[in-house]
Design a protein that fits this description.
Number of helices: 6
CATH class: Mainly Alpha
Number of domains: 1
CATH architecture: Orthogonal Bundle
Radius of gyration: 18 Å
Bound molecules: zinc ion
Strand content: 5-15%
CATH superfamily: Winged helix-like DNA-binding domain superfamily/Winged helix DNA-binding domain
Largest sheet: 2 strands, antiparallel
CATH topology: Arc Repressor Mutant, subunit A
Length: 122
């Protein structure tokens, strides 16, 4: 597990990354709250159910996700999938993340590119 837990006062810096992460997974397969809490924990985000469920409800209210109740044996759970609007929002967000990524990692990327062209020239 990555040691990425940040100081609470820096939480706002990452708050947008969490719904993006949720949207990404919901575009791949149906997701549910506890599973997403685990998934985000794996990536270094610690979310309580008290934050995850309102987030999912809010994303559904905004039309990004659509939920359905499912039953597996005696367990009932609410699963969420990305809507077409959610997928569209995700693809715009991916471009923005890519843009930010290239800026944040400008040095790394140009060093790697230089290395690659040196190797090509032999
Ligand atoms: Zn993930």
């Amino acid at each position: 597990m990555p040691r990425l837990y940040s100081a609470p006062e820096h939480r706002a810096l990452y708050s947008g990354l969490i719904p993006l992460h949720v949207l990404y997974h919901a575009s791949k397969e149906p997701i549910f709250g506890l599973e997403m809490i685990e998934e985000l924990r794996r990536h270094g985000y610690r979310l309580s159910p008290g934050r995850m469920y309102p987030l999912l409800h809010g994303m559904e209210r905004k039309g990004l996700l659509k939920s359905a109740e499912t039953t597996a044996g005696r367990n009932r759970r609410r699963v969420y999938r990305a809507t077409p609007a959610g997928r569209a929002a995700l693809s715009v967000a991916k471009e923005r993340v890519q843009e930010l990524f290239s800026e944040l990692f400008e040095d790394v990327i140009s060093a790697a590119a230089k290395g690659a062209s040196r190797r090509r020239r032999g």
